[in-house]
Write a structure and sequence with these properties.
The protein is of the alpha/beta class and 459 residues long. The protein folds into three domains: 90 residues, 3-Layer(aba) Sandwich (Rossmann fold); 208 residues, 3-Layer(aba) Sandwich (UDP-N-acetylmuramoyl-L-alanine:D-glutamate ligase); 132 residues, Alpha-Beta Complex (Protein-Tyrosine Phosphatase, Chain A). The strands form three sheets. Strands 7-8-6-9-10-11-12-13-14 form a nine-stranded mixed sheet. A six-stranded mixed sheet has the order 15-16-20-17-18-19, sandwiched between helices. α2 packs across α6 and α14 packs parallel to α15.
């Protein structure tokens, strides 16, 4: 068993640790390791100017910086390599360490080891950010301290020295993060759904599923696995965990689990059905958000929180930025930011959330996806599509084949103006790209922030 908390951090003193990648997670890892006395070398392919002031500030902490290239020599003689999620394990920065047998973990593993609190971990192709935030909000209705972090944007390593063992960590985890876990042991592990995504990184859908299944790697019969009974790939993962399985379903009542019972979210965990919250009190749009509420309820119930507190938390929750986020009504046209829609399945769920006619803005880096399913979902829903980015043409071609008029734009700003021109009062203009953002933006947050600013600036 791996030591956790202060006992683990004490083992880092004097160790030579290389942090590869200086995004949010890499910066947090480097700061934590220096704070406990490790000798830290941090590398990134970006230049120091491109990385910004936070990375430059590492030098003042005693971190040695190697930037502006891959620097495979950085890992020579290292005791440990901490790799950021965006850096593949077969990249030139990491491959030499693997060849030498140097231990390689991610910031998620580092942060979890540095903490002692019980962890609820949530993954899935879609919905994990909303479900993580909602679970955190539900647990905020009870007395124990709650830390919401992980892939949602708050690295666990950033709070490892201050968050107490008596608290609860609610952690969004991605397939990239799970690839570099070893001892990571969530007391509750939830898989919301598994559909093809990141195939350019994982190589196949089977490998992607395997990465997701690592969330159960260290669970025992004393733990809980929350799985979507309506999603075939997620439901079959029940065979890959030793934990007690709690299913959730939007489509049918279950013998054991959390489900829709009439017009209520309900649970049957102790032999009888207990109503939790009326569906009418869920503020979030779309059937997929009912599924997110079911999953969050299942996770929260494990902690012993009262149903009335869960109902209160659901009713107060207003969603997260960049996920079907309402921006404004301009002359009867409603504008929504769904920049978090970075794959086909996510954008399909966004389209299904509206009964209004939709002008869709989509495109970016397609990650090897097939856009035919998106086109079928758009048929009869999308009155016009505006496409941008590296794979915008592929999306446009798929949509045009089902009769959706398509406009190609060179920027998000020009795409918005084209969408505004196509929309009429009562319509929705929806940014839901079905693609990653890195061809034009720093990340999906940057893309969504730019879109929000452009919409708010419309006269």
């Amino acid at each position: 068993m791996v030591a956790r908390g202060r006992a683990y951090l004490e083992t880092m003193a004097g160790r030579r640790v290389v942090v590869v990648g200086l995004g949010k997670s890499g910066l947090a890892a480097a700061r934590l390791l220096r704070a406990v006395g490790a000798r830290v070398i941090a590398s990134d392919q970006k230049t120091l100017a491109a990385l910004g002031a936070d990375a430059r500030g590492l030098s003042a902490l005693g971190v040695s910086l190697l930037v502006g290239g891959s620097h495979p020599e950085a890992t020579q003689g290292a005791d440990l390599v901490v790799v950021s999620p965006g850096v593949p394990l077969d990249s030139p920065q990491v491959a030499p360490a693997r060849a030498e047998g140097i231990p390689i973990i991610g910031e998620l593993e580092l942060g979890w080891r540095a903490l002692e609190a019980d962890t609820i971990a949530i993954t899935g192709t879609n919905g994990k950010t909303t479900t993580t935030a909602l679970t955190g909000a539900l647990l905020g209705e009870q007395a124990r301290p709650v830390l919401v972090g992980g892939n949602i944007g708050t690295p666990l390593a950033a709070h490892a020295l201050t968050f107490g063992a008596d608290g609860l960590v609610v952690c969004e985890v991605s397939s990239f993060q799970l690839e570099t876990t070893e001892a990571f042991h969530p007391r509750v592990a939830a898989v919301l759904n598994v559909t093809p995504d990141h195939l350019d990184r994982h190589g196949s859908f089977a490998a992607y599923v395997d990465a997701k299944a690592r969330i159960f790697l260290n669970q025992t019969s004393a733990d809980c696995a929350v799985l979507n009974a309506d999603d075939e790939a997620a439901a079959t993962l029940a065979a890959r965990t030793k934990a007690r399985v709690v299913l959730f379903s939007r489509r049918r009542e279950l013998d054991h689990g959390v489900f829709v019972h009439g017009d209520w979210v309900a649970a049957k965990l102790n032999g009888h059905v207990e109503r939790i919250c009326p569906l009418g009190e869920i503020f979030l749009r779309g059937a997929h958000n009912v599924e997110n509420v079911l999953a969050a309820t299942a996770c929260a119930l494990w902690t012993g929180i009262a149903p009335e507190a869960i109902r209160r938390g659901i009713a107060h929750f207003r969603g997260v930025s960049h996920r079907i986020e309402f921006i404004r009504d301009l002359k009867g046209v409603h504008y929504y930011n769904d920049s978090k829609g970075t794959n086909v399945a996510s954008t399909i769920k966004a389209l299904e959330s509206f009964t209004e006619r939709i002008v869709l803005i989509a495109g970016g880096i397609g990650k090897g996806q097939d856009f035919s399913a998106l086109a079928e979902a758009a048929r009869g829903r999308v009155l016009h599509a505006v496409v941008i980015g590296q794979d915008g043409g592929k999306i446009g071609g798929a949509l045009a084949r089902v009769g959706v008029p398509v406009t190609e734009s060179v920027s998000l700003e020009s795409a918005l103006h084209a969408a505004r021109g196509a929309a009429r009062p009562g319509d929705v203009v929806l940014l839901s790209p079905a693609c990653a953002s890195f061809d034009m933006f720093d990340n999906f947050e940057h893309r969504g922030d730019v879109f929000r600013g452009l919409v708010q600036g419309l006269a």
